[in-house]
Amino acid sequence: MDSTNQTSRGLNLINTAVSRAKKNLIIVCNQDFWMRQQGQLLKDLLTISQPYPLNVPTKVF
What we know:
Structural class: mainly alpha
């Protein structure tokens, strides 16, 4: 999912999810991977969300 490409379907999917979220947006991804991706919208969203506590268990089932 490349959000640096303006014609990317991934960018459109992320934009749609964010704009439709009313109260909560749950992002399921490999956080370590995306935090290393410069210039990506998903990295920016994860960075912005860092100050907020998770309300879900982080334990892998």
